[in-house]
């Protein structure tokens, strides 16, 4: 996932916004490859081993060409589309798809993959089973937005305020979620506050800021993550 996100940033700095980050478009390579490091950020400048990629750019757009019309119809895969985009589309209002929306899509991919692993191992809490089912089952922007906001509020209560019990597969990701959830919300607020003055410059500056924050959070959480799921999950009985 981390390497797919670095690939996403490489697209972004080259002027392309993917717009369809999903579980089917972030792929593991058959074998690790040595790639040119991402030197823009201190935290990634020495990382040369690549194990994953972002694929399928069919819905990608040249984000610097801001004379295009705002999106009135959704792009992306519904379970992973950002709350911001879903909310505006549900109101039938045009909206500018930004890096913040794609970064949030990475969050939903990560959460759904973790929940799917937990479901396979029969280790999810009842709330988590509902999150997974309802996120994947939502079939329109309004219900998807509502489900995501509910799931995120519950996850925030568990991670940031320890109000609810988490399953083992989510518990080991608490350090990551603790950083990422506030970053994600901050990026959404920044996207909502954009105006037409110096828009490309703002998107460039904000993009660099938030990608670096996400990369740093990933790398900071990495030492606490298991090498295999068997370290934290028991096989199903």
From TrEMBL:
SUPFAM superfamilies to which the protein is assigned, alphabetical: Protein kinase-like (PK-like)
Domain Fungal-type protein kinase residue range list: 5-112
InterPro entries assigned to the protein according to its UniProt record, in alphabetical order: Kinase-like_dom_sf (IPR011009), Pkinase_fungal (IPR040976)
Annotated signal peptide: none
Record PANTHER family: FUNK1 11, FUNK1 6
Name the UniProt record assigns to this protein: Fungal-type protein kinase domain-containing protein
Classification of source organism: Eukaryota, Fungi, Dikarya, Basidiomycota, Agaricomycotina
């Amino acid at each position: 996932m981390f390497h797919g996100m670095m690939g996403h940033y490489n697209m972004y700095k080259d002027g392309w916004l993917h717009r369809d980050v999903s579980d089917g478009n972030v792929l593991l390579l058959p074998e690790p490859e040595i790639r040119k490091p991402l030197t823009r950020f201190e935290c990634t400048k020495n990382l040369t081993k690549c194990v994953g990629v972002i694929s399928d750019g069919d819905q990608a757009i040249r984000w610097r060409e801001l004379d295009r019309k705002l999106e009135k119809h959704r792009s992306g895969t519904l379970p992973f589309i950002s709350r911001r985009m879903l909310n505006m589309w549900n109101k039938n209002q045009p909206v500018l798809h930004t890096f913040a929306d794609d970064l949030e899509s990475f969050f939903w991919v990560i959460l759904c993959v973790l929940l799917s692993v937990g479901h396979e191992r029969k280790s999810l809490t009842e709330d988590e089973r509902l999150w997974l089912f309802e996120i994947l089952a939502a079939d329109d922007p309004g219900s998807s937005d509502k489900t995501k906001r509910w799931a995120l509020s519950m996850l925030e209560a568990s991670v940031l305020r320890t109000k609810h019990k988490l399953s083992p597969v989510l518990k080991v990701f608490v350090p990551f979620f603790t950083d990422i959830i506030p970053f994600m919300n901050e990026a959404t607020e920044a996207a909502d506050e954009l105006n037409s003055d110096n828009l490309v410059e703002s998107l460039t500056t904000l993009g660099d800021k938030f990608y670096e924050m996400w990369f740093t959070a990933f790398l900071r959480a990495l030492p606490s993550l298991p090498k295999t799921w068997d370290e934290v999950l028991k096989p199903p009985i």
